[in-house]
Amino acid sequence: MAKIYIEGGRRLEGEIRVHGAKNSALPVLAATLLCRGVSVIHNCPPLLDVGASIRILEHLGCICQREGSTVIVDSTALTGMDIPDTLMREMRSSIVFLGAIAARCGQARLSFPGGCELGPRPIDLHLAALRQLGLTIEEDHGLLDCRVEGRLRGTSIHLSIPSVGATENILLAASTARGRTVIHNAAREPEISDLADFLNRAGACIRGAGSDVIEIDGVYDLHGAEHTVIPDRIIAATYMAAAAATGGDLLLRDVEVSHLTAVLDSFRTAGCRIEPGLHTLRITAPRRPHSVGTVRTMAYPGFPTDAQPPMLAMSTLADGPSVFVENIFENRFKYVDELARMGARVKVEGRVAVVEGVPALSGATVSATDLRGGAALVVAGLAASGVTEIDELRHIDRGYADLEESLRQVGANIKRE
Ligand code: EPZ
Asked: Which of 133, 187, 192, 277 is least surrounded by Cβ atoms within 10 Å, i.e. has the fewest?
């Protein structure tokens, strides 16, 4: 099993390019199913989850090609409407394909996505909304058997939680439904706006994406379109945490600064100087970060839950205590036990973690517990004195492409063996 080895304590300095957003590429690839023709998606990061999405598209009959970070999908003729259990288990966010498959094929069959390391990942909001759009969904022994006579029908949907995935599923299902759909309390994440941009380029008629009320006027069908995926704001936040943890000075390229406002506030509180440019951002950190105060994860534009682990890892070195309140997921502090092996002093009580800053961490042998928890261990390892060894890298590879290479370019002593 491959491991990452980091000889920490080196100040990061230099430039890093931020790749395309995983959480935008996945729904946009699902959306290509709706387009009768060829779609070209640029800035798709070479991640395990992108690979899984392409395998699902190919299983359904799409012809896919990868040219660097561009994925070309020809979904003119589909031959299937099911996602096999193996592929569902490989990536639980495959549930976002449900709306697209049902809208295009009139039926869909997939297994219930399992929970994940963050705790149960319910899909009740997805299913309730799709049923409101006219999809019949039978749940039988973990299998979702879905069908609709004719086309889905537009309607008004109120989400009790501004769920990112549920909002995406509704956008995908409603784009070619009959009539108007209005989503109230929609998720406002930049990835939602990016998906709506792609769909509108493909001929959809969506207004209000990025706000909490989105209107979709169904069209008869969609054609292929070309699109460039937005930069990954969580990758940017992770590299910023690495800079802040090592007293570093990084210039991030291909970032969308407007997607990072909540995160930037926390880094400024930690004593970092932030210099935003046009699609760039420079972060200059003090030798030792200050406390970030209290960070509460919220739906966008609040502090993103995915940035909580890297930010907490950085704050374990702060010259004062910090508090993190995880309001989105039940079990998003599992990685803290691994940080403790490196000398971090964090007390977790339910959804609250109290971090007592320590002057230094020491390298240790640790295991990635989940995607962003694994990133937190990399951030801590870059700052720790001595060697940190990280295994269970499949978690990290789901969301971070060329991580070691990027960090080596800015002075980190990091390798994978
Ligand atoms: C997306 O997950 C992201 N994944 C997550 O990123 C991210 O943490 C999350 O949004 C929040 O921003 C992708 O985009 C592939 P939600 P999603 O539906 O859509 C509850 C990463 O690290 N809920 O907004 O699953 C749910 O349990 C991943 O890249 C229901 O109760 O998140 C959670 O508590 C991790 N019922 C809250 O809503 C539902 O039907 C927000 O979940 C759906 C969600």
From this structure: 277
